[in-house]
């Protein structure tokens, strides 16, 4: 869409990992002003350093010598979400970037979950942990799998609102229950939910990875890090679900 502004020396054909924050206006302005001082082809060192920043921040050329970060609606599209999925409902631009940067890529998840369609012709009951903006829910819906019930656990109220409003907009006939903190989802509560819905057909989720590798990480504390240790809650919950459902059958 912005092809006409891309200089010949920027040979990128792919984006890098989408991040939870974007390049500063200072950086994009610095790039613009360093290029406007050059004639045709900037010196090799200038090109290299600009390309480095472009790769790091997924910058796109949107005008003469003018780079910019992807817009939230462009990221929504790249991640396979409906347009304006994260827009409105009180969510700020910064929050949109954060939620999008942490999200599943919908088509990829749908590809992996496509086997479920024939296995569950009447629909499924889902326990969605760390639901974020609902990458898993959107993927299942996209596959035409009926969502009989979804128990969605997500700490951010902004994200919970996004999933709730998507649920309402897509005229779901099932039930959406949203809970905030996985750490509070104890054995009793899980047992209650399993009894109420006759068990879960799918447990899905991606616990926070910002203490692990990747460009979104804050620290390298690994699985013991403040956020990433929630992986152990995922593990605990999965174990309870298996045990309770094993006993019931
Ligand atoms: N797969 C999701 C995003 C996963 S990112 C998607 O498609 O959007 C991890 C998510 O875990 C974030 O949205 C974060 O807000 C949430 N989270 C962090 N701590 C949590 C907790 N204690 N309980 C529930 N969710 C939590």
TrEMBL record:
The active site is at 209. The keyword Cell membrane does not apply. GO terms for biological process: methylation. Its EC number is 2.1.1.37. InterPro entries: C5-Methyltransferase (IPR050390), C5_MeTfrase (IPR001525), SAM-dependent_MTases_sf (IPR029063), SAM_MeTfrase_DRM (IPR030380). The keyword Membrane does not apply. It is found in: Nucleus. One of its GO terms (cellular component) is nucleus. Signal peptide: none annotated. Gene3D superfamilies: DNA Methylase, subunit A, domain 2 (3.90.120.10), Vaccinia Virus protein VP39 (3.40.50.150). It is an enzyme of class 2 (transferase). It comes from the Eukaryota. Keywords: DNA-binding, Methyltransferase, Nucleus, Repeat, S-adenosyl-L-methionine, Transferase. Pfam families: DNA_methylase. Belongs to the class I-like SAM-binding methyltransferase superfamily. C5-methyltransferase family. This is DNA (cytosine-5-)-methyltransferase.
